[in-house]
């Protein structure tokens, strides 16, 4: 029987050998922040709706819209089945003794039906991912508006076999470009730009910083994309691996974000495959070129798309994009060791 995943000869083309995981923003990946609140047992269940109404009016908990006011007590043998959040500790009145009457000093909330208060920790912010939701719910019942794509992506299941097969091919081209650059004495970093709608490679490039310190593989590729659109600043003619193809008529007829021009703005909606996590300069160039998504293989200590910074998710920048890491991770890591070997041999010669 034909296997579902398209396979090539040899293990290095096995799409099961890698998983692409999303590089999420700090807000999406941080631990659950907790805040202290007073809760109290509801000793008379019949008073629940009145208590919730009066408490919500007196202590509205506006910053905790994601928190459920009442929770069921799951512990067996508990004398009361429900507990209610009274208020945040920071909102409580000054009290010499912590008791329910001191917490509810006005006649706006009648304490009948409530037991004595105790301190709980509740999630301070709405959960953004399923792992955050699961952690938050351990502290207090929490609402969650799930982004299904993020949930699936975090499991490494966003891309099906056919998509992974395409991604594999593109990153293999980037790896081949990196090796070609390395043969010429450059850093072993390669990149490929793809129009995912047309499934077309727009540019292939490798590190060229032997010529110019700023010609990192990403910068080379952005310039090649610009050249494919009639622009660009540099010539990479002496590097046969650094190439571009002009977009076809079909890709330019109805550009989705063209701002009146007949072509998409540089990398609008394009995918970028790069063997090593881009640096800050390259990440900013990707922002400015309006890239659609970035896939990289190996993380880098100075990387700006996950390791040192997360430029793709900066709220104060005017363009954000999705980033996935781990595509052909092993082959891309091997390229870094090529660079290391080169550095070591240069040091030995000195
Ligand atoms: Zn760079």
TrEMBL record:
Matches recorded under InterPro entries: CMP_dCMP_dom, Cytidine_deaminase-like
CMP/dCMP-type deaminase domain: residues covered: 165-324
Cofactors, names only: Zn(2+)
Record GO biological process: tRNA processing
Keyword presence, tRNA processing: yes
Top-level taxon of origin: Eukaryota
GO molecular function terms listed in the Swiss-Prot or TrEMBL record: tRNA-specific adenosine-34 deaminase activity
Alphabetic keyword roster: tRNA processing
Entry's family note: Belongs to the cytidine and deoxycytidylate deaminase family. ADAT3 subfamily.
Protein name: Probable inactive tRNA-specific adenosine deaminase-like protein 3 isoform X2
Organism: Xyrichtys novacula (Pearly razorfish)
């Amino acid at each position: 029987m034909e296997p579902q995943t398209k396979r090539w000869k040899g293990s290095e083309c096995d799409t099961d050998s890698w998983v692409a995981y999303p590089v999420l923003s700090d807000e999406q990946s941080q631990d659950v922040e907790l805040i202290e609140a007073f809760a109290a047992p509801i000793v008379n269940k019949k008073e629940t709706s009145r208590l919730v109404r009066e408490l919500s009016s007196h202590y509205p908990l506006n910053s905790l819209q994601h928190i459920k006011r009442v929770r069921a007590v799951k512990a067996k043998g508990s004398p009361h089945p429900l507990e209610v959040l009274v208020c945040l500790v920071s909102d409580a009145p000054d009290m010499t003794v912590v008791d329910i009457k001191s917490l509810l000093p006005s006649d706006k909330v009648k304490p009948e039906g409530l037991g004595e208060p105790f301190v709980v920790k509740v999630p301070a912010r709405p959960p953004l991912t399923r792992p955050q939701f699961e952690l938050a719910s351990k502290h207090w019942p929490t609402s969650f508006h799930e982004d299904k794509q993020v949930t699936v992506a975090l499991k490494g299941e966003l891309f099906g076999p056919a998509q992974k097969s395409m991604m594999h091919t593109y990153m293999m081209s980037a790896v081949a470009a990196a090796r070609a650059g390395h043969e010429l004495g450059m850093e072993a970093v390669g990149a490929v730009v793809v129009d995912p709608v047309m499934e077309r490679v727009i540019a292939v490039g490798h590190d060229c910083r032997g010529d110019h310190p700023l010609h990192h593989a990403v910068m080379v590729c952005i310039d090649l994309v610009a050249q494919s659109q009639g622009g660009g600043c540099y010539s990479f003619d002496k590097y046969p691996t650094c190439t571009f193809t002009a977009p076809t008529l079909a890709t330019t007829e109805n550009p989705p974000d063209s701002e009146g021009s007949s072509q998409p703005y540089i990398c609008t909606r394009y995918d970028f495959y790069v063997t090593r996590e881009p640096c800050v300069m390259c990440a900013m160039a990707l922002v400015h070129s309006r890239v659609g998504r970035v896939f990289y293989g190996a993380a880098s200590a100075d990387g700006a798309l996950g390791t040192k910074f997360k430029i793709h998710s900066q709220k104060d920048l005017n363009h954000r994009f999705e980033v996935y890491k781990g595509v052909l991770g092993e082959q891309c890591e091997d390229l870094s060791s090529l660079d290391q070997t080169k550095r070591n041999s240069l040091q030995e010669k000195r």
